[in-house]
Amino acid sequence: MTSTARTHDRPVGDACPYCGWPDRAEPFQVVSRHGTAAGHTVWTRCGCGSLQMRVVDAGGVRVASRSSSRP
What we know:
The structure is a single chain. By secondary structure, this protein is mainly beta. It has no helices and 6 strands. The protein has a 4-stranded antiparallel beta sheet with strand order 3-4-5-6, with no helix packed on it. The chain has a two-stranded antiparallel sheet with strand order 1-2.
């Protein structure tokens, strides 16, 4: 189920709240990647500049956190 809440007049949940770009879409820049016991933590930067922390594990990929403001 996709969230219908809105931030900065953009959809949130499975898309960047600043530009609306889907979380699973490219292009995005990988800033760093770190192995964990369950998989990987990947820090990415959306095309609009929003920094995002993605968790990659057996359940797939999900955005766990994203910056509250663009640089």
